[in-house]
Design goal:
With 258 residues, the protein is of the alpha/beta class. The chain contains eleven helices and ten strands. Strands 1-2-3-5-7-10 form a six-stranded mixed β-sheet, with helices on both faces. α1 links the parallel β2 (14-19) and β3 (50-55). The chain is globular. Bound molecules: ligand T3D. Ligand T3D binds at residues 23-24, 26, 59, 62-67, 69, 77, 80-81, 106, 108-110, 130, 132-133, 135-136, 138, 141, 232.
Amino acid sequence: MAAETVQTDFSEGVLTIILDRSKANAFNREMIAATRAAFQFAASEDRVRCVVLTGRGRIFSAGQDITEVQGETPFSFQAHLEQTYHPLVLEIRRLEKPVIAGVNGAVAGAALGVVLACDLRVAADTARFTVGFLRIGLVPDSAVSYLLPAIIGLGRAAEAAYLNQPIEAEEALAWGLVNRVVPEEALAAEAQAWGRKIAQGPAGALGLTKRALNFATLPRLEAVLDYEAALQEIAGRSADHQEGVQAFLDKRPPVFAQ
Ligand code: T3D
């Protein structure tokens, strides 16, 4: 039997979704499906008034499990994104209940898109945010190219993407990427305290507020997801992507040809 990759806990109106996969909480299809199922439960269950999404261990999530899709032929990046991260990101944004990311450590790649899709971010002081894609010859997907500049500004987003420099917790706070930074050991309690406070608010008005924020600030979300996926189909077929993945697996810096 496959090990569970996501755990949930419900208390005082707060559904906590915990990413828990031995390999850096990296997403494979099973973990994406399990995360989506948890968000679908949150949408369908009136007792859930707020969601906390966090990770087990020292890494929130390393994004796509790089080893999962290697060697799959034929493989379409576009189709894969449409079946996995697009619905997950859209379900988080369309859920008319606040979602708090409790960022317990490193976050990279598609997982960054998932964290950015959350409404609020509470981070441990050990958290760091890495765009990640260019290191393996890919382009930002999972709405990172939309949400990151929307939150921290175009210049900072471009720097984080092009240089693949991690944004450390305190910098993330200064840039508005996270709402709070707390000591690592206080993260779970802080995220729960926020969740309980929000859960006591007027659920209907909170939901309508999220709808208004989506309408006001993210009107092109679906279109950007589609555009990113089309670009990923191009980048994913490149020799630079093959080299980036091989270099990651070999634990050496990549040498790009293009
Ligand atoms: O359709 C499509 O598939 C396209 C969609 C793409 C979506 C994406 O998410 S692409 C981007 C994928 N993610 C990355 O490129 C991030 C790669 N990882 C990292 O940058 C770093 O690992 C972290 C910043 C996340 C954490 O760094 P650190 O130093 O704390 O940990 P580490 O030593 O690098 O990683 C710990 C282990 O996890 C290590 O394995 P080992 O040596 O202990 O056996 C490492 O290989 C493994 N790991 C980390 N990231 C991934 C991974 N294994 C598989 N997939 C990963 N993404």
